Amino acid sequence: MSRDVNVAILGATGAVGKELLELLAERNFPLKQLKLLASPRSAGSKIVFNDQEITVQAASESSFEGVDIVLASAGGSTSRTWAKQAVEAGAVVIDNSSAFRMDENVPLVVPEINPEAAAAHQGIIANPNCTTILMGVAIYPLHQVQPIKRVVVSTYQSASGAGARAMEEAQTQARDILNGKQPQAEVLPYPIAFNLFPHNSPLNDQGYCEEEMKMVNETRKIFDEPELKVTATCVRVPILRAHSEAINLEFERPFDVQRARELLGVAPGVKLVEDWQTNYFPMPIDATGQDPVLVGRIRQDISQDCNLELWLCGDQIRKGAALNAIQIAELLLEKNLLTVSNSAVSI
Ligand code: A2P
């Protein structure tokens, strides 16, 4: 890595923000200065990083001066408010929200899949949707060997995807139910404890929710396969963090299961977890706090000769969000990509 840099975390008090802090310390990220930004509600609060207390500041126009990299995880509208100003102040923004993901001037990057796309950035790089990242890391190694024709995916998504408050709400609801009280839902639309419901993002005319369409459109963009067929059903489940996904992949020709297992056994960012004797496969409880996407139950689809089935679990806050963002930041440093390739910021 070339030099120490000034980093700002926008959304430092949130679930992903906290994980970003942990990862910066854990990975010994070459930091010169770290700025912690959040909403005015959190201004003045203190967060300990590497034994040092840092005061959280409310994001403002002057927040980005002298900052090299902004790790933004404060929601789409906050990113829309500040990203352009941060870029104009000279920073590269790695944005975890969906605000810019499908913008043609914004690379959508998963370092294990399309690191080369980062080089074309014009100041903003988007971090993909969490379920999309986890799926992409697990299926791209197979796609590279034999192109995938169609993906059918069902997700089992934890409360963490809706932020720190949704995680707290899930725990409160569980306690209330066990104590014989009615669970209250404020952050998520329905009680999540001891329940599940289809992902509550807005529905389109075809009956797909936004989360499902993110999996479709973002996978196409990251894989650079605009015609790839993807269909998804996204479901919120009573898990605190770590998402799971059941994936059916269709290929042109049969894909040897053993070959798929070998490929995923050495794929970057993937850990093969399969013990067929004991029926032990990836579980969210094992994926929690882990970097790799756990993949297992790879098997031939008995109903289609050219299809494989697989199952994965991945920490939504780590690889699904914070870790991917930090890996993009590391990539920028490694490849010397901190300067904007085209000074005209056309976001
Ligand atoms: P705050 O804690 O001050 O509300 P999560 O996804 O876990 O809910 O976290 C969201 C993050 O985004 C929090 O750090 C939150 O700060 C931050 N945030 C929310 N709204 C704004 C805003 N208008 N400006 C800056 N940060 C914001």
Q: Can you put this structure into words, describing what you see?
A:
The chain starts with a strand and ends in a 13-residue tail after the last helix. It folds into two domains: 5-99 and 321-344, NAD(P)-binding Rossmann-like Domain (Rossmann fold, 3-Layer(aba) Sandwich); 131-315, 2-Layer Sandwich (Dihydrodipicolinate Reductase, domain 2). The chain is globular, with a radius of gyration of 20 Å. The chain is built from eight helices and 15 strands. Mean pLDDT is 96; it is low at 342-347. The chain is an alpha/beta fold and 347 residues long. The strands form three sheets. Strands 10-11-9-12-15-14-13 form a seven-stranded mixed sheet. Strands 5-2-1-6-7-8 form a six-stranded parallel sheet, with helices on both faces. A two-stranded antiparallel ribbon has the order 3-4. Bound molecules: adenosine-2'-5'-diphosphate. Residues 11-15, 17, 38-39, 41-42, 59, 74-75, 78, 163-165 line the site of adenosine-2'-5'-diphosphate.
SSE order: EHEEEEEHEEHEHEHEEHEHEEH
CATH topology of the largest domain: Dihydrodipicolinate Reductase, domain 2
- Specify Rg, calculated over alpha carbons: 20 Å
How many helices? 8
Q: In angstroms, what separates the terminal alpha carbons?
A: 28 Å
Unreliable sequence segments: 342-347
Kindly report the name of the CATH homologous superfamily of the largest domain: Dihydrodipicolinate Reductase, domain 2
- Kindly state the mean pLDDT as a whole number? 96
Give the strand tally: 15
Structural class by sheet pairing and helices? alpha/beta
Bound molecules: adenosine-2'-5'-diphosphate
CATH class of the largest domain reads Alpha Beta
CATH architecture of the largest domain: 2-Layer Sandwich
Main-sheet strand order equals 10-11-9-12-15-14-13
Biggest beta-sheet profile = 7 strands, mixed
